[in-house]
């Protein structure tokens, strides 16, 4: 079994979530739900991207470059970077570059599940994307370019059980999970 403590720490980082809650005007429960959904959806899309040689090359190249550029930010502390907008913008850039065409679908799914507006979750998702991809970049360097630290897709489903087959189909990543989920005719046609 793979070591998934990296991802569990990412999902359960209470001090990070408190810091985010202080910076945005949303209840902590909403922040936690957006965080869980965003991280799960981003990781499933990343798994999909890593299934091809071209996708894997793109991800590794961009994350290695990102790690070099952000090496001066210790421990991903939001209090060190005063420009919140800069982090959000960089997160959206990384999301659009690493997972082209997925941002809109991811945002739509999160809006549907949280009942928050697009404008409410947009900066939160950008920040979570920045944190996830920055931590992944450094983990990738620590693992010397291998993706063996990635959590298996079947375990990702545990982090956001409210996501359905329809959600995974909407982001084009259902095939990543298809081996771990039975397909029902009613769900497949929805």
Number of domains: 1
Low-confidence stretches: 179-190
**Shape from CA axes?**
globular
SS strand fraction? under 5%
The topology string of helices and strands comes to HHHHHHHHHHH
Rg, Cα atoms, Å:
16 Å
What average pLDDT do the residues reach?
A: 80
Helix share bin: 55-70%
Q: Give the termini distance in whole angstroms.
A: 34 Å
Largest sheet: none
- Kindly name the structural category: mainly alpha
Tally the beta strands. 0
- Provide a count of the helices: 11
Task: Walk me through the structure.
The protein is built from eleven helices and no strands. By secondary structure, it is an all-alpha fold. Helix content is 68%, strand content 0%. The chain has one domain (5-189). It is globular, with a radius of gyration of 16 Å. Helix 3 (28-49) runs antiparallel to helix 8, helix 5 (84-98) crosses helix 7 (118-142) and helix 6 (103-114) crosses helix 7 (118-142).
């Amino acid at each position: 079994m793979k070591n998934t403590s990296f991802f569990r720490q990412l999902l359960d980082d209470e001090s990070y979530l408190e810091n985010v809650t202080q910076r945005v005007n949303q209840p902590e429960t909403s922040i936690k739900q957006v965080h869980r959904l965003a991280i799960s959806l981003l990781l499933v899309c990343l798994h999909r991207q890593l299934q091809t040689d071209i996708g894997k090359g793109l991800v590794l190249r961009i994350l290695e470059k990102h790690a070099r550029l952000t090496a001066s930010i210790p421990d991903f502390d939001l209090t060190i970077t005063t420009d919140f907008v800069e982090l959000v913008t960089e997160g959206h850039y990384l999301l659009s570059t690493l997972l082209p065409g997925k941002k809109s679908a991811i945002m739509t799914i999160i809006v549907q599940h949280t009942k928050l507006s697009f404008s409410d979750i947009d900066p939160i998702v950008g920040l979570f994307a920045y944190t996830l991809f920055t931590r992944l970049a450094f983990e990738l360097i620590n693992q010397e370019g291998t993706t063996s630290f990635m959590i298996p897709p079947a375990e990702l489903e545990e982090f956001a059980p409210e996501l359905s087959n329809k959600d995974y189909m909407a982001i084009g990543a259902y095939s990543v999970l298809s081996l771990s989920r039975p397909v029902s005719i009613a769900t497949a046609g929805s």
